[in-house]
Amino acid sequence: MIAQRINGVLRPVPTGFVYAAGLVPLALLVWQAATGGLGVDPVKAIEHRLGELALQFLVGVLAISPLRWWTGVNLIRFRRAIGLLSFFYVCLHLSVWLALDLQFRWAEIGADIAKRPYITLGMLAFVAMIPLAVTSTNGAIRRMGASAWTRLHRLTYLVAVLGALHFLLLVKAWPPEPIIYLGCVLFLLGLRAFRALRRGG
Predict the structure, then answer these.
(1) What integer pLDDT is reported at residue 2 of this predicted model?
(2) What is the reported pTM?
(3) Does residue 2 sit in helix, strand or coil?
(4) Dist. CA 155–CA 129, nearest whole Å
(5) 34, 35, 101, 201 — which has fewest CB within 10 A?
(6) How crowded is the C-beta side of 98, counted as CA atoms within 13 Å?
(7) How far apart are CA 155 and CA 166, in angstroms?
(8) What is known about its subunit structure (predicted)?
(9) What integer pLDDT is reported at residue 3 of this predicted model?
(10) How far apart are alpha carbons 73 and 144 in whole angstroms?
């Protein structure tokens, strides 16, 4: 009953509202940067916040199907928007790292990608997200066929693990926050595996 009421409330909500709401954290970040509220190293603060937002939206994508399976709350029609917002924030995160942090020093960038595992994992996650973003249209589903499109978009699982590991290795000291993100990703993937095994049995 509660799920039906929630679904009824969400039914008239346009997808554009999700995009608009997803840009609110960016607006707040810009405001903090403009008012000097990001501390002594604003570039690092911006870079890390954008990466964290990307991971948060990615966890949101993973949560949509289990939420529908186990509670009946259906957010499937918002999944594409949430996934594209994740990719948008990943692009911003990468752009800040390239342009503001390393200032397009390509030799240093290449060395960091090769030598620093957390950067290597982050770049792999970004590359894996590109085909997901490119094929996030109804036209792509029609051209590829639903089965092939579904198989491709299972890359989301890999991206989520890589993104969570990127965050965990970045902070080095292992504070609770990145561990919680990784735990959420593994838990949500575990729910998928459990359901697949139960249905297969």
Answers:
(1) 86
(2) 0.95
(3) helix
(4) 8
(5) 201
(6) 11
(7) 16
(8) Heterodimer of a catalytic subunit (MsrP) and a heme-binding subunit (MsrQ).
(9) 86
(10) 29
pLDDT means per 10 residues, the chain with 201 residues, are 86 94 98 94 96 98 95 95 98 97 95 95 98 94 93 96 96 86 97 88 51
Three-state SS annotation for 80-148: HHHHHHHHHHHHHHHHHHHHHHCCCCHHHHHHHHHHCHHHHHHHHHHHHHHHHHHCCCHHHHHHHCHHH
Angstrom distance (rounded) from CA 150 to CA 142? 12
25: left (phi over 0), alpha (psi -120 to 50) or beta: alpha
- Dist CA 169 CA 82 (whole Å): 25
Contact 15, 77 (CB under 8 A): yes
Instruction: Tell me the C-alpha to C-alpha distance, in Å, between residue 147 and each of 95, 144, 153, 162, 190.
Output: 33, 8, 10, 24, 22
Sign of the CA dihedral with 87 first, then 92, 94, and 95 last: positive
How many other C-beta atoms are found inside a 10 Å radius of the C-beta of residue 108?
Answer: 11
What angle separates helix 176-200 from helix 42-71, to the nearest 10 degrees? 30
pLDDT value at residue 69: 92
Tokens 């049995």 found at: 201
Contact (CB, 8 A) for 182 and 188: no
Q: What are phi and psi of 126, to 5 degrees?
A: -60, -45
Angle between helices 15-22 and 24-34 (to 10 degrees): 20
Q: How many helices (H) and strands (E) does the chain have?
A: 11, 0
